[in-house]
Structure formats: structure tokens, C-alpha cells
Amino acid sequence: MSTISLAPLTPDQPLDLPSRGRVGMLSLIIGESAIFTIFVVAYVFYIGKSLYGPTPAQVLEVPIFNTVCLLSSSFFIWLAEGSIEKNRMRRFLLWWSTTICLGIVFLVGTAREWLKLIYHDGLTIRTNLFGTTFYSLVGLHATHVVVGLLMLLLVLVFTLTGHVKESHTERIQVLALYWHFVDAVWVVVFTVVYIIGR
Amino acid sequence: MADQVLTIPDSLNVSSRQITDETFLERLHDWVVTVDHKKLGILYVLYSVFFLFVAGAEALCIRIQLLRAHNHFLSAAVFNRFFTMHGTTMVFLVGMPILFGFANYLIPLMIGARDMAFPRLNAFSFWLTAFGGLLLYFSFIGGFGLYGVGSAPDVGWFAYAPLTARAFSPGHSTDYWALALIVSGFGTLGTAINIIATVLSMRCRGMTLWRMPLFAWLMFVVSGLTLITITPLTAAQIMLLIDRYLGGHFFDTQAGGSAVVWMHFFWIFGHPEVYVLVMPAFAIANEIIPVFSRKAIFGYPAMVAASAAIAFVSLGVWAHHMFTVGMTSVSNAFFTLSTMLVGVPTGIKIFNWLATMWGGRIRFATPMLFCTGFLFQFLLAGLTGIMLSVSPLDWQLHNSYFVIAHFHYVLVGAIVFNIFAAIYYWYPKATGRMLGETLGKWHFWLFLIGFHITFDTMHFLGFMGMPRSIYTFEPDRGWDRLNMIVSIGGFIQGIAVLIFAVNLVWSYYRGQPAGDDPWDAWTLEWTTSSPPPEYNFATEPVVRSRRPLWDLKHPEDPDWRYEQ
User: Is the pLDDT of residue B227 over 90?
Assistant: First the structure.
């Protein structure tokens, strides 16, 4: 038999493998995106199919301030990621806290919006199809904001106790990925609920 | 085979069953708190085998009820609960956990890793899945208490709206169904994430993606598919719970909601789910057929590409479950064609397996027998699938026993056969003992005969117009004799599975010691001892080809000389 001398890849070098944290978080994000897709599809499908009011055009106001807060928080968490990479812990603390504050402002804004919708406009989840799909979709997103905030707060507590170090950069960045995802989903939810659906 | 002496650098001299003086409680504690992928894999498999018996018993009760016209074994209500629980259990508590159990046990061993990427997430996922199953079965005694069979779900495994609305499903039976599946769905999602991260980030030196065993490749594809398949079901079930508990209107036709939307959401999950179940069966065949044909797998890249193609196409075929709903002719044509398209990559796989066997020195040990049965039955299942994809024919046959026969040909004839093959093949690795060959042959032949008596006959019942999910039928329909035959076949399968159970237990204590590499195989899991030590490999293995163990056994003619 003729031997084909092919130089085999030298197996002694370790493979250049992606970080498992990043891969895991990206997989979670793909899965979560599928959940949101179903809710968004349901929302879009049911636009204008409510048999009785109130309709989105009558009661919804575009939450510009809220949106600016949430989307800018993505920028601040990005600054925080950069700071911890360069071991500037005080700056990290500052940007991280800013992110959390902006997230809380967003939640408070949502709460005020819902309060108005429920008590002033009389729109609850059982009022009509619009109420059902609106509270489900926006509520699903808000739930993700809450979960994200809880994790951010946990990191904040550990930072204040001095446990978060430069060596945790990658974990912080993996967590930040989730926050970026929550913000990106808001772009979709905002477009569908407040622009297309209104 | 086993007498071949090999010096495998990575295996340690660990006795096949360590003698320990741990008490029962200590051992139980070990298994409950474990994060070891091998123990979790075994837990998954045992859990699924247990539910296989439970759901099998439900199927036999259904078959006793349908033995003859106007039988009174089960009441109509109990019959509905039994077929719902049979389907739900087999898909969610047997099919998925057992296949993920194999992935858990084997992938780290096959890619030369010491554990999964996230061992604690792994344990968490298993216990979520386990509690999901317990919750589902708690419905028999929970809810409104134990009247006869309590309040188990009775809405069919696809739970069509508006039957699931509060008005038509009072009580908690449907809630048990939705909640149990949400819980076990999160477990499945966790395992899928874990498998993806393990395959991408935990491979040993030299294990490039193109040298990975096909088993790991296919489980990777399946996990990716699971990420976007299980989650729509979770979303739809959250909507269902919103409807039932908060008074929402998603599927409430009286407030403008749509029942058809539920069908779409369910089958967007439901059809790719079939591929989530069947591709691990392909993965098993990819490992077993080459080893028992004594040839390397034919067309490795084509196998990978075909798997990815099946995963991709499977996302666009769901509405072939809905031809009878009344869609536009464009939708009908689209879903007919996309469904037929699945046949192309699947056909490539069948030809590759045949080409692997062609000219090989085939050893018909029990695992190979089951895989051969799989090949034959999966081909037939695919052909009836192509028949059903033709929408006009589907209008005639939909929801008849023909459909039941078709998908049981896939789920039993392909998937369960390969699950049995996998258990016979890897049992020696997990326990250190071989499963009995004689009992194995009895198991195979009885199961094969029972399978064909049952499911071949069901096709004819479908042609004769017998619909699915009916608890009895009129004697003048001419279905009597065939139903009797179907039921007899079911009992033959039941006997075969009992033989299997006896074999599992008997071989654990009395089976032949297996040695590290009883089948003369080629992948990394056979380089460690049987059972493997907790750390899998004492030193990290180094791989230079797709068949690292072949290279070790045949240094004069290693694979890496030909692979690139």
C-alpha cells in the first residue's frame, strides 16, 4: 500500500477553544429569543383583533424617557466591563451602580405606566386581547429586567465587600451579555408595542 | 475480543467494581448530591427506563380496552387520561431524558474531558426534569383527590385549545400538564446549553471538530435545535396558564383569540421535537454500525451536513400537522414540499449506513441486531411520512390509525430500537459487566415480532377509517380482528421488555466481566476502565484522528495518515 505522507496536525498544541461561560450564555440567549419570538408573534397576530376597547391608540403613551434609560444602561455596563478589564475598580463600581440605577428607573417607569393603565384606563390582563398580549409581552421583558437587576445587585454587593477582582473580568462580561440581550429585546418590544401596534 | 491485551496509556488499573464499605444511606447521599456527569447520566437513564415501564403499562391498558368492540376495561374518561399520559410520558419523560442521559454520560468521555462544562447546572437540570415527571404523575392522586384515577390530564398530548380552556377543562388536570412540562422544559434547556458548551469548549488536545465522534456532533446539533424548539412550547404553556389563571384571552375564541394559534405554537415545537428525539437515535447508530461492521463510518462530513440540514429543514415543516385545519393552497403546497425535503438528508444518512455495512465483516451481536432493525423500520417510517406529507392524502388519513402507525414506526421502530441498542452497547462501560447475549437475542426477536404485529397492522386499521383516540368502536365496522392482532402484538412487546428488565438486573450481578473494551471499538470512552473512574482520564488524552483507539491498536496503519 502506498503511504501518503501527510504531515498530521501537531496534536501537542492545545486547541483554541471558546470560553464555556460565553458559549453557555449565548446559548441561553438563543433559547430566550425563541420564547420572546413566540410572544412577539402572538402580539403582532392579535393587533386590532380585540372585540372591545380600550385600544392601544387610546391608552398607550410612547415611553421615550424609559427607553433612553434602559438603552443607555447598555453603554454604562460596557464602560464597567472596560474598567474591570483594566483593574480600575472605583470606576467599575461607578459605572456598575449607574447601570443598576438606570435599570431601576426603567422598572419604576413601567410600574407607573401600568398603574395608569390599570386605574385610569381600566385596562387589565383580562379586559381584552390587547390587555392580555400587552401585559404578557411587556411583563415578560420586565421579568427579565428584574432577574438581570438581581444578578447585577449581587455583583454590586460582592464589589462593595471587595470580592470582585480583575480576574473576574470574564464572568462580569458574561453577565453583561445577558444585560445587553435584555436591552436588545426592549428595542423589539418597543417597536412592536409602541410603534407598529399603536 | 476481550482477551486482546492492549496497553492504553490513559486507562488506570481500577478494579471493575470497587469494594466499598459505605452504608446504603451514604451511597444514596452520594447519588443525590452528585455533580458527576456519569452518575447523572445513569440517573437520567434509570429515570427514563422507569417511566418507559409506566407508559408502556398505560399503552397495554389502552390495548386491552381496544381488544374488541364495546369492551369495558377502561371507562371513556380514564381512557382519555391514559392516552394523554402515555404520549406525554413517552415524549417528555422517556425519550428526551434518556437521550440526554446518554449524551451526559458519553460526550465528556468521547471528547476526552473530565466532566461537562457546567457540572452543577447539569445536576440542577436533572432534578428539574425529575420533579417535572413527579409533578405530572402526582396529578393521579393530587388535584381533586383520588377518585378512580384522580385528575390526570386528559386533553391529548397536544392539548388543543379551546379544550384546555377553564370552561372545558375544569379542575387542575390541565395545569398539571402545563406546569410539569414547563418545569422539565427548563431542565431540558439547561442540559442543551450544557452539551453545547461542553462540545465547543471542553475538547481534549487534537480533538478538532472534524475529529469528533459523530455521536458528539449529532448531540451538538440536537442541543442547538432544542434551544429553539423547547422554548416555544414553554412560551405557549405560559400563555395557556395566563388564560387559565389570570383570565387572559390568547386562545379564547369568544374574545377574539384563536385556537389555531395554539396549534401553530404547539407544532412549531412539536415537529422539530421529533427530530430532537430521532437524531440522538441516529447518533447511536453512527457509533454502533461502524464498530460492528468493522469499518470506519462512510461519509463522515456528509453525515454532519445531513444532520445540520435536517435540523434546519425541520423548523419549516410544522403545519403538515394541520392540513385538515383548512389552510390556503399556498401553505399546503409549501408544507408538503418542505416536508418532502426532509427526505433528502435522511436518505443520505440511510445510504451512508448501508455503505458502512457494505462489504464489512458484520458481527450480529445484540446492539447491531437492534441497529439493523432500526435501519429497516426507519426507512418504512420515512416512506409513510412522505405519503402523509402529500396534503390531499393527509386529508383522508389524518388522525386515523395510519398516523398512529407512522409515528410509532419512528418513535418505537427507530428510537426505542436504538435506545435498546445503546443500552446493550454501553452497559458494559457503565457497569463493568456485559448484558446477557441469550436474553438479549430473545428480547430483540420478541420485540421485533411484537412490533411488526402491532404497528404493521395499525396501518390497515387507518386505511379502514379507524380514528385515533377513540375508547371503543362499533362491532359492525370490521375493525375487530385487526384490533385483536394489534393488542396481541402489544403484549409480545411487553414480554420482550420484561425480559430486558430481567437482563438488566441479572447482568448487573451475574453478567460476564466486560473489560475496558469489549467490542473492540475505536472511540475514547473505551480507553478508560469500566466503569470509568470519577476523573475519567488520568492524563488528558491526545487525539490525532477520528478513531484514536484504532491508532493505538494499529500503530502500523494509523488513521491520521489518511485523514486530513
Answer: yes
Q: What is the pLDDT of residues B270-304, one digit of tens each?
A: 999 999 999 999 999 999 999 999 999 999 999 99
Rounded CA-CA distance B225/A88 in Å is 41
ipTM (interface pTM): 0.92
Q: Is B258's CB within 8 Å of A5's CB?
A: no
Q: Which pLDDT value is given to residue B7?
A: 45
In the structure, what pLDDT confidence band is assigned to residue B257 with cuts at 50, 70 and 90? very high
**CA-based nearest residue in chain A for residue B241:** A136
**Alpha-carbon distance B59 to B455, whole Å?**
13
Q: How far is A143 from chain B, CA to nearest CA, in Å?
A: 13
Cis check: omega of the bond before B558, within 30 degrees of 0:
no
Per-residue pLDDT for A82 more than 80?
A: yes
Nearest residue in B to A11, CA atom: B206
Pick from B249, B263, B562 the residue to mutate for testing the A interface (most A CBs within 10 Å).
B249
Measure the CA dihedral B188/B194/B195/B199, to 10°.
170
CATH code, residues A21-196: 1.20.120.80
Give A-chain residues touching B196 at CB under 8 angstroms.
23-24, 27
Question: What is the least distance, in Å, from the CA of A44 to any CA of chain B?
Answer: 12
* Average of per-residue pLDDT across B154-174: 89
Distance CA A158, CA A155 (A): 5
- pTM of the prediction? 0.93
- Band (pLDDT 50/70/90 cuts) for residue A6 is very low
Q: Do A8 and B248 touch (CB under 8 A)?
A: no
pLDDT at B150: 58
The C-alpha cell at A55 is 385600544
Contact B116, B220 (CB under 8 A): no
User: Rounded mean pLDDT of B170-183?
Assistant: 91
CB contact under 8 A, A14 and B205: yes
Q: Does B241 touch chain A (CB under 8 A)?
A: no
Supply the CATH classification number for the domain B40-561. 1.20.210.10
Kindly determine whether residue B234 and residue A6, on different chains, have CB atoms separated by under 8 Å.
no
DSSP state at residue B90:
I
What grid cell was written down for B419?
435506545
